[in-house]
């Protein structure tokens, strides 16, 4: 039953993560760094936004090899589900009109993104490829998470912006709030491993 619960939480968390990304895309007020990259690459690759998300996730996973990171089931599902959920969500989500509605969609997207991240990470079935890249670099270099995460995000944002991805208010809003949202969502969604019976 515990594994069923983990799988259920993993998949709805990944699906919600993709839906939240679609909300931010439709708001068109700026994206998080990785999505700036995805948006900039998608037309150059001739792929949909979601399929670009999946492709970049697979490429990032290859970078785990020299870092000696081991993917879990959640890692593989992350690559397959999130981008697909984005594309399906974009098919049903209209484009909001007016700044107030766009900002509301942006806010909802960021909040749901943080909650979804807490859910799929809390399922404990393996980090996403981008998260694993960060933790792998930290372990191999001995550098603190804050410096590695910041360096990766700034580099990805710069490349995405140069490729034409949308940088704006949403980018700043996301950067300022996502850590706080995930920090509070993760304890709520973390599924503790079952206790082992005492011996003797």
Order of SSEs:
HHHHHHHHH
Radius of gyration: 17 Å
Q: What percent of residues adopt helix (DSSP H or I)? A: over 70%
Biggest β-sheet description: none
Mean of pLDDT: 88
Shape from CA axes?
Answer: globular
Rounded to the nearest angstrom, the distance between the terminal CA atoms is: 26 Å
Q: Which features would summarize this protein structure in a list?
A:
200 residues; mainly alpha; 9 helices
Report what the structure shows.
Helix 1 runs antiparallel to helix 6 (99-122), helix 2 packs parallel to helix 8 and helix 7 (129-141) packs across helix 8 (145-162). This protein has helices spanning 2-27, 33-45, 49-62, 64-67, 73-92, 99-122, 129-141, 145-162, 169-189. It is mainly alpha-helical. It has one domain. The mean pLDDT is 88. The two termini are 26 Å apart.
List the topology elements.
Elements: H1 2-27, H2 33-45, H3 49-62, H4 64-67, H5 73-92, H6 99-122, H7 129-141, H8 145-162, H9 169-189
Helix pairs in contact: 1-5, 1-6, 2-3, 2-8, 3-5, 3-7, 6-9, 7-8
Question: How is this structure best summarized?
Answer:
The chain is mainly alpha-helical and 200 residues long. The chain is built from 9 helices and no strands. The chain has one domain.
């Amino acid at each position: 039953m515990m594994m069923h619960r983990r799988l259920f939480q993993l998949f709805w968390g990944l699906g919600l993560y993709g839906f939240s990304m679609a909300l931010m895309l439709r708001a068109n007020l700026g994206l998080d760094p990785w999505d700036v990259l995805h948006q900039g690459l998608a037309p150059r690759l001739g792929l949909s936004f979601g399929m670009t998300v999946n492709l970049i996730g697979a490429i990032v996973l290859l970078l785990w090899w020299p870092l000696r990171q081991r993917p879990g089931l959640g890692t593989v599902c992350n690559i397959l589900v999130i981008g697909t959920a984005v594309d399906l969500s974009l098919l049903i989500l209209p484009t909001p009109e007016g700044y107030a509605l766009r900002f509301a969609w942006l806010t909802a997207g960021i909040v749901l993104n943080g909650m979804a991240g807490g859910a799929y990470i809390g399922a404990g079935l393996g980090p996403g490829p981008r998260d694993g890249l960060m933790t792998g670099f930290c372990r191999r270099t001995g550098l603190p998470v804050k410096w590695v995460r910041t360096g990766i995000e700034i580099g990805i944002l710069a490349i995405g912006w140069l490729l034409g991805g949308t940088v704006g208010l949403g980018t700043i809003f996301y950067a300022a709030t996502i850590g706080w949202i995930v920090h509070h969502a993760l304890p709520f969604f973390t599924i503790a491993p079952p206790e082992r019976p005492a011996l003797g």
